[in-house]
Design goal:
The protein has about 350 residues and is of the alpha+beta class. The protein has 14 helices and 7 strands. This is A nuclease family of the HNH/ENDO VII superfamily with conserved AHH.
Length: about 350
């Protein structure tokens, strides 16, 4: 059963007999549930039992987080983007102004990241547990989020900003917005993900979110490679978006690329710098090109350069990208035959 912005006054009191589990949840929450809440929990026993097990895990119960979780179930957004209708229903539970579309988008983006952190640290947790635990923080995010969105609702401060979710003890997170703070200096203290929000090259009303995600092995990964096409504004079906530094796993994880990502410039594999529009006929399999780039990265990462700053490796990577770009643009050969 899903309800879009439902209220008991819209329907009258539902005709139902509360189940034991719905009654137990209401008791756990101090009797705050409405008849409609009780009806929903009675009709959705699997959800109700999962929620009760979360509330009974021994930690202090957060009533507002529980109500938020129930509302998510009622509105069908347990595993989907938050809707304006859902935002309206939970407006009194959270401190952020979710009636502002920009705030709602930012709230959901960070909320999703928080769930990803928790799932990474606690793979055994159920979806209900993940949502409830993330919500315990989310309802208190006003001070972090309110300053980001001007009166007109345009998240202008984010265009050149980088959002860092810095995990402390694996549960508590801090959201900070800065103009040019890199991963460098924070990796060892526990960040799991970073964001950078930019304008779309083809639609100035749209936003593209770059993500830097630290995986279990400690490497920064860069999200979805198909994002590059949107970043460089490529719409011609006969063209492909070519990653000058290839998307190949061992290249993404190369020390030079990783250090550049940690620099104050926060290099990203999908940024404009690393993208080039080329004809489809040129951009087929290019193993030899990948090997060439790998060789040149190894040359940058030689023994003489060990101990140099992340900024040094970023600058060297930019030189390599520009050299490769010039070689590609000055030739009509397939990418795999490019030499420089």
């Amino acid at each position: 059963m899903e309800c879009q912005n439902c209220d008991i006054s819209d329907f009258g009191t539902p005709a139902f007999t509360p189940t034991k589990i719905s009654t137990a949840i209401n008791r756990d929450l101090g009797g705050v549930l409405s008849d409609y809440h009780l009806w929903y929990l009675s009709e959705n026993s699997a959800f109700a039992y999962e929620l009760r097990s979360v509330l009974a895990d021994g930690s202090a119960i957060d009533t507002d987080a529980a109500l938020f979780t129930i509302a998510a179930g009622m509105n069908g957004v347990l595993d989907k983007p938050f809707t304006p209708e859902f935002a309206l229903e939970v407006d009194e539970l959270v401190e952020a102004d979710l009636s502002n579309p920009a705030t709602l988008h930012l709230f959901y983006t960070y909320f999703s990241a928080k769930i990803a952190f928790l799932k990474h640290d606690h793979p055994e947790w159920s979806d209900g547990k993940l949502l409830y635990e993330a919500t315990k923080e989310a309802i208190h995010w006003t001070l972090d989020i309110a300053g980001l969105v001007p009166v007109l609702g345009e998240p202008a401060d984010l265009i050149n900003g980088v959002l860092y979710a810095i995990e402390g003890d694996g549960v508590n997170a801090t959201l900070s917005v800065v103009s040019a703070v890199p991963f460098y200096g924070y990796i060892t203290s526990g960040p799991k993900i970073g964001f950078k929000v930019i304008q779309s090259a083809t639609d100035l009303q749209s936003r593209i979110v770059f993500r830097w995600i630290v995986n279990r092995e400690g490497f920064i990964t860069f999200g979805d490679q198909s994002q590059l096409r949107h970043v460089i504004g490529l719409t011609d079906p006969n063209k492909r978006a070519h990653h000058i530094i290839p998307w190949q796993k061992n290249i993404q994880e190369h020390p030079v690329v990783q250090k550049a990502a940690r620099s104050k410039h926060s290099f990203h594999m999908n940024e404009v710098l690393n993208g080039l529009s080329v004809d489809k006929s040129r951009n087929v399999s290019h193993k030899d090109y990948n090997n060439l780039i790998k060789l040149k990265l190894d040359q940058i990462n030689n023994s003489r350069n060990q101990g140099k700053s992340d900024e040094f490796f970023y600058e060297e990577l930019v030189k390599l990208i520009n050299n490769a770009k010039n070689a590609i643009e000055s030739s009509e050969l397939p990418i795999n035959q490019i030499r420089f």
